[in-house]
Amino acid sequence: MIELVQRLNWFIDRVGLRPYINSDNPVSQGRRWPKDEKTADQSKSTADRGNSSSCGGLFVASLAWKAVLCLKLQGDQYINLCILVALLQYASGKSEKIMNQLIEQLPRRLELRILEYQNGYVVYDVNSSITFSIDKQLGPPLEIFTRLGVNEEAINASIQQYGHDRTFQTLHLLKELNQKGIISDVAGIKASVPPIPRVSSLFLNVIHGCNLRCAYCYAGGGSYGPLYAPNERMSIPVVRAAIDYLLEHSGEQKVLTINFFGGDRKREKVYSKRILFGITTNAILVNRQVIEFIKENEIQFLVSLDGDKKAHDAMRKNLFGKGTYEQTLRGAKLLLLNNPSITRVRATLSSANANIYAVAQHLFSIGFRCVSIGFVSDPKAFRPLPEQWQDIQEGYKKIMKMVIDELRINNRFINFLEFTEDVCRIYAGRKLYYCGTGKWMRAVDPKGNLYPCQRFVGLEEYRLGNVWEGDTNRELLNEFHNLHIYSIPVCSSCWIRHLCGGGCPHVNLMVNGSLRSPDQQICRWFQYALSETMKLLAELGDAGEDHIIQRIYREGTAGQFDRSDTYA
To answer: Own/partner pairs for 271-275, CB < 8 Å, 24+ apart?
Structure first.
């Protein structure tokens, strides 16, 4: 009886306990964010249950009822009566039946990623792909339930290490999260692969030649291998047939993208579709005539520039072995001068420019508003040393801080694309595929042959068909359609699988010889970047700076981030 009274006193002392979940924090809402009226109503309904006296039909001693009346719990301070009764029964040595009833209301197996940050823990439920933050006291017990499952063994282990207080708070938290659908039982998740999607994105390789010889080029200096003649060009009939193929195979898709080519306005009107045009360029040949063509056709440009002069010239040389920084910078500034909003830049990380923060600083200082920095297409060309990894990781955090500070101080959004995409990944839902390769994406070589994407061009075994006959290699098409996270063995136990999608198929093939064998260097990088992004979002939410998160999310979803590879 003394222990029973002590438990009651413990509950009374906890009236001032702050909420277990910060419901105003957008991280708490996961992909339900931005918070809508329905979510707010649900939160109010949960708070209103604070005056409820239902206990699920369990017998409650009169002493327990008196304790509940004394508590007068409101809103987020409400403690489920089932938990209270379970604790009372546990204290009096009658826990087994009540504990089993409690466990039945909770998910048995959890798959959570629990990350500690400044004010507590940010938790990512792998299967629901929802992220939320919790009190610092509840992180360690939650790790036990994640590791052992929600069962009596885990409860006893948690009580032994962290006491009854934190253990039952954690169980209550799990119940509330489960009821709201924020966490899910691993056993309840089923794989569901949608039908083969319509084609909506086309890459046109209009010429197999290049005026540069970049050290890390996956296309052999633009030649794309021995299947093509030197500087082989795409004829006008092939161009027209390629565009017709895209329009005819796009189904109900209203927005299409064509990369590397200007397009045909008549066909756009006939099919009542909007076509976005884009070109990846080294900008060396940009002149006034090119600028006028860009304005007329509304083309977006992606400029390849690897940082400052030393870093760029080390890897991106011309046919005579000379650096090309000055020529690329001249063309890039001309593009930025005429329309900075449609000009982006991408730097490729290599041994010459492993200082990612310095690269980003330089590119933003030139005037680019959207900066992307990624590893080389063939990761074997650059395997960072341990000390380089440390610099890259620290540099990534500095860039994120630079983006946040610019919004906080100047209310100006500068788009570090990798960070923006990570924010969108966290809130956009679960990814089934890494990208649209061989699904809603195709590439066309100068002869009119179809490939899964521009990186597979020239690999004869990956030819899907041609622009006149369509996708004749149905077996290969099905292979790419079924190239999803459920078909990649190493992804089955990876916590970022629904955020990553299994890695670039071409990189997987180049590094490990299989479409279904991701490069561990890339996996390691994604895991780190997503972890740091989740922590930063939690800190912003705690500081009441939700508007910053909303701005990044809004800019990302309105821009280049493709959400068509996500599912509910």
So the answer is: 271/247, 273/247
**Looking at the predicted structure, is the pLDDT value of residue 57 above 50?**
no
* Residue reference for tokens 């080294």: 282
| Residue 482: both structure tokens together | 């079924």
Give the burial class of 221: count Cβ atoms within 10 A of its Cβ; 0-12 exposed, 13-18 middle, 19 or more buried. middle
What are the residue ranges of helices labelled H in 207-322?
Answer: 236-248, 265-271, 288-297, 309-315
Contact 518, 494 (CB under 8 A): no
Distance CA(216)–CA(485), nearest Å, equals: 28
3-state secondary structure 56-95: CCCCCCHHHHHHHHHHCCCHHHCCCHHHHHHHHHHHCCCH
The residues, ordered by sequence, that sit 6+ positions from 75 with a Cβ below 8 Å of its Cβ are 47, 50
Range in 106-120, 136-150, 173-187, 403-417 with the lowest mean pLDDT: 173-187
DSSP 437: B
CA dist list (Å): 108 to 102, 148, 184, 410, 495: 11, 9, 9, 48, 18
Helix, strand and coil percent figures for the chain, each rounded to 5 = 50, 15, 35
Instruction: Give the C-alpha separation, 224 to 318, whole Å.
Output: 18
Report the distance separating Cα 552 and Cα 276, nearest Å. Answer: 23
DSSP string, 389-402: HHHHHHHHHHHHHH
The proportion of the chain whose per-residue pLDDT surpasses 70, expressed as a percent, equals 76
List the beta bridge partners of residue 302.
280, 344
Neighbours of 541 (CB within 10 A): 24
Q: Which residues pair with 281 in a beta bridge?
A: 303
HEC per residue, 452-467? CCHHHCCCHHHCCEEC
Residue 4 CA to residue 351 CA, distance in Å, equals 65
pLDDT digits (tens, 9 = 90+) for 231-249: 899 999 999 999 999 999 9
Q: Please, are residues 463 and 449 in contact by the beta-carbon 8 Å criterion? A: yes
Stated as kind and residue range, the H or E segment containing 2 is helix 2-13
- Give the distance, in angstroms, between the CA of residue 121 and the centroid of all CA atoms in the same chain: 20
Residue 335: count of CB within 10 angstroms of its CB = 23
The first and second tokens of residue 441, run together, are: 């994406």
Tokens coding 546? 């939700």
In the predicted structure, residue 34 carries a pLDDT above the cut 50 = no
Q: Please tell me whether the peptide bond between 34 and the residue prior to it is cis, using omega within 30 degrees of 0.
A: yes
What is the average per-residue pLDDT within 361-366? 96
* Alpha-carbon gap, residue 306 to 477, rounded angstroms: 35
Per-residue pLDDT of 61-107, as tens digits, reads: 333 333 333 333 343 344 445 555 555 555 555 455 656 666 777 77
Of 383, 382, 513, 457, which Cα lies nearest the Cα of 220?
457
User: Distance between CA atoms of 151 and 107, rounded to whole angstroms?
Assistant: 10
CA distances from 182 to 32, 105, 169, 179, 426 (A): 9, 14, 17, 8, 14
